[in-house]
Structures are given as structure tokens and as C-alpha cells.
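The instructor's notes for this session suggest beginning with a concrete chain rather than abstract definitions. Hand out the sequence below and ask the class to guess, before any prediction is shown, which regions might be ordered.
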Amino acid sequence: MASPHALKERAFGLKYVCGGVSESIIYRSFEFFLGGILSKVIHFEICVDDPKRAISFYEKAFGWKIQKFDDPTMDYWLIEAGEKEEPGINGALLPRRPKMPPTTNTINVKDIDAALKLIKKNGGKQFDEKMEIPNVGTFAYCTDSEGNLIGVLQPKGGMM
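After discussion, reveal the predicted structure:
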């Protein structure tokens, strides 16, 4: 039988390092177990009251490149938050909606239907209907067991 530390490492992407009497946990960046694979946070969304003002702020304060998503039916601006070679993820700005938190992270999943079942089975809820995003994949907002909003994305063509 596997040790509790080995189970946690496999289930949550945590690495335990013994340091004498105490242990420290080294988290692998934003990874956790979902549907038999390690699923990384691959995208963030920042909800804003004034997109024009927010775009100006993030471009000037952080040097981010922000451009409107190529879909006239969506108020959505893509953020390139650094060079591809740099660590980190890219995201988006969108107008604030009722009951939306200020920031949402999106998690890459292999099978969105299986992920939604696991989310519900483990105390989470599906926030709204899943949707197809053209040339991107299938997406849904959910809440975790603590009520935090998260996104899950099954990318077109498989894992990102």
C-alpha cells in the first residue's frame, strides 16, 4: 500500500520533502488531479467594470498586450501576459457579471463531461451550461467545494 505522502503526491501534484523533523510541501505550479491526469491552470480571466480603463491600466502597468477576441458576439479581450518563453499563463479581460468573482482561473481537462461529473461528485457545482468557443474548445464555469468559481476547458484537438 502506498504511503499517505505518495497518495497526496499522485492525487494533488504535491511533492513532499523531508527536512529533519518538519516537512515542507513544494507545489508544482497550479496542478491538481482531475480525471486521471494532472490538470494545469492554463488561463485566467479578470472581470472589470470599464474594459477600456482596465486595458490601459494593464498595458501601461505590466506591458501586457491586449486585443479584442475575434468574435463580435463576445465582449472579451485576450491578454498576452509575457513572452512565450517566460513562465506563466495568458488570460483575458471581460465585463463583470453578477455573482462573478473578480478573477477566475481556467483548468485544462482531457474530457469536459468526465471533469464535470467529478466536480459534482466531489462537492462542486456546474455554474452555467457548457459552451463551444470557436477554434478553442468546450468550456464551462463551475464552483469548487468552497464556492470559488473556476473554468474547465477541453481544448479542441486535446490537451494544451
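Then share the key points. The longest strand covers residues 37-48. The chain has a mean pLDDT of 77.
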